[in-house]
Amino acid sequence: MNQDNRPLSQRFPGGCYIGFNAAIDRKAAEQLVTVLTQAVQNGFKTINLAISSAGGILDHAYYAHHWIEGLPVKMVTYNVGSVQSAANLLFLCGDERYGVDASTFFFHQSGFDTAPGQRLSAKFVRERLKGMKYDDSRTAQIYATKTGRPIKDVRKWMDTELVMDTGVAIQSGLIQGVRPYQIPPDAFHHQVIV
Fold it and tell me: Three-state DSSP class for 146?
C-alpha cells in the first residue's frame, strides 16, 4: 500500500474548508481550536470557516476567539445560516467575512441562567451583574474593533437584541458581502464534531 505522507495542503490544492455547527461550550471550543490548529500544521495558509451557531458560553467563545486570532493564517468566515450571540465572536475572527444569501446575525446582552431551586443572595446577584457588565464591555470592544464601528453603535445592537440580515450586516461592517459557500472538489473539508 502506497501511503501519501505529504501535508494535507499539498494533497488538497483546493484549500481548507471547516464547518462548525454547534452551541459553544468547552468541548465545542476545544474541538474547533484543535481542528484549526491541525489545518495550520498541515500547511494551509488560508482556512475557510463556515459557521452556523446559536452561540453559547462566553468564556469558551473568548478562548476560541483569541486562539483563532493568534493562528498564522488568513481566516475567511462564512455565516451559512444564523450566527447568534457568542458565535459572533468566532465569526469576527475572519480576515474576510461573508454571509450566504438570507443568513442572519443576532446580538444581545449577556445574561445568566439559574439552576432550578437555586437561592439567590444580594451579593451573588451584584457579582453576577458586575460580571455581565464586564462581559458586555469586552464583547462590545471586540465587535467595534473588528467592524470599525463606534462602541455606542455595537452596544445598541446588543441592547436592542438586534437581528441583522445580510444587507444590514454589510452596512454595519460585519461582512464584506453576500457569497455562496462553495467547496472546490479538490479541497479538504472537515466538519467539527462535538
Answer: helix
- The 10s digit of each residue's pLDDT in 21-44 is 999 999 999 999 999 999 999 999
Q: Where are the domains of the chain?
A: 14-109+161-191
Question: 14-109+161-191 belongs to which CATH class?
Answer: alpha beta
Q: Using one digit for the tens of pLDDT, what is the confidence trace for 131-178?
A: 889 889 999 999 999 999 999 999 999 999 999 999 999 999 999 999
Q: What is the largest CA-CA distance in the chain?
A: 68
> Percent helix, strand and coil across the chain, each rounded to 5?
40, 20, 40
What the block records as the C-alpha cell of 182 is 462553495
> Residue 46 — φ and ψ, nearest 5°?
-130, 135
> DSSP class of residue 45?
S
